[in-house]
Amino acid sequence: xxxxxxxxxxxxxxxxxxxxxxxxxxxxxxxxxxxxxxxxxxxxxxxxxxxxxxxxxxxxxxxxxxxxxx
Amino acid sequence: xxxxxxxxxxxxxxxxxxxxxxxxxxxxxxxxxxxxxxxxxxxxxxxxxxxxxxxxxxxxxxxxxxxxxx
Amino acid sequence: xxxxxxxxxxxxxxxxxxxxxxxxxxxxxxxxxxxxxxxxxxxxxxxxxxxxxxxxxxxxxxxxxxxxxx
Amino acid sequence: xxxxxxxxxxxxxxxxxxxxxxxxxxxxxxxxxxxxxxxxxxxxxxxxxxxxxxxxxxxxxxxxxxxxxx
Amino acid sequence: xxxxxxxxxxxxxxxxxxxxxxxxxxxxxxxxxxxxxxxxxxxxxxxxxxxxxxxxxxxxxxxxxxxxxx
Amino acid sequence: xxxxxxxxxxxxxxxxxxxxxxxxxxxxxxxxxxxxxxxxxxxxxxxxxxxxxxxxxxxxxxxxxxxxxx
Lengths: 70, 70, 70, 70, 70, 70
What we know:
- 6 copies of one chain form a homohexamer.
- Chain A is mostly beta strands.
- Chain A has a single domain, classed as CATH 2.40.50.100.
- In chain A, 10% of the residues lie in helices and 56% in strands.
- The longest helix of chain A is centred in the middle third of the chain and has 7 residues, at 42-48.
- The radius of gyration of chain A is 13 Å and the shape is globular.
- Chain A starts with a strand and ends with a strand.
- Chains in contact: A-B, A-C, A-E, A-F, B-C, B-D, B-F, C-D, C-E, D-E, D-F, E-F.
């Protein structure tokens, strides 16, 4: 499978939080202490079927990435 | 300065590409070989004033991050 | 601090609503009656540490702004 | 017509820039000097049929609005 | 009314789910079994005033559409 | 492969347009005349390696789908 997004980084799921409609998943980028958070619908989380400790890929379209200069 | 986005990761600019309206910046996440690409307007790139080698912070709202299970 | 987004407007926080995972913040654009709403994770809201009456800046990437012609 | 976005603000088109695939439109929020920029495809710009001086409505989903605390 | 988004498809609302801050609406694309889900704030849902069986138009900016090659 | 997006629809690529930084792909939803447009970086298009006539899957996060009531 290939996708049309520039950003695709391996990470390990470290926390999952469920709300009424939305859910939040935190994952730690491979080989680092950096964490990335993804918010999706609870339905998508259930369909994805992930649990803490699972390896996932973090995907984002480049247009939705903002750069900040310190 | 604080912002309302969950994702904020340090990276070094490794490539910049300019188009007529848009521009593309690639940055390497600190301590890794992972690259993240950001697309912004050319005007924003000029205003940001970044060059290859600069350290930036990569920011993304959690709602725009997609998880993929291999 | 500079960021790579074209849109950056001062506004005053007028309402905050908290859900299980997400939170919603309404702010009024400086010198107007126009309101802008931002949705973020509850974690981001807590980290941002804003309250009603605070002045914030409203930032949005140009690609996520839609124009409508009446 | 009604839409499911929280943000809908009147503005006047002040500048249009065309690229090969994308186009950029700047508009000034009614009663202010604040400018908002929208990026869309050139095809969408042509279909929208706007010119400088036109009044438009600026629409954005709340999830794509980021708050920054100075 | 015209808008600056490339994607605009008729669909019928088949399910609505309400959370504390967010709401989720599922709609079936006209003439198909394909379903599209939209997440918006509960406030936007109430303002939109839609119910199951209503015909809506599904709009998305092209930059937020990802293509996947099987 | 599974992903955390609610929207995933099969479509056939009908047109590709390349710019300096960005590219635009139009695809027709299976069994319909409805077209969906995706904008990505030229780099992503090349990596994806799609051509007219190819079957792809159109993916979008539910938060980026806007409903309009006629």
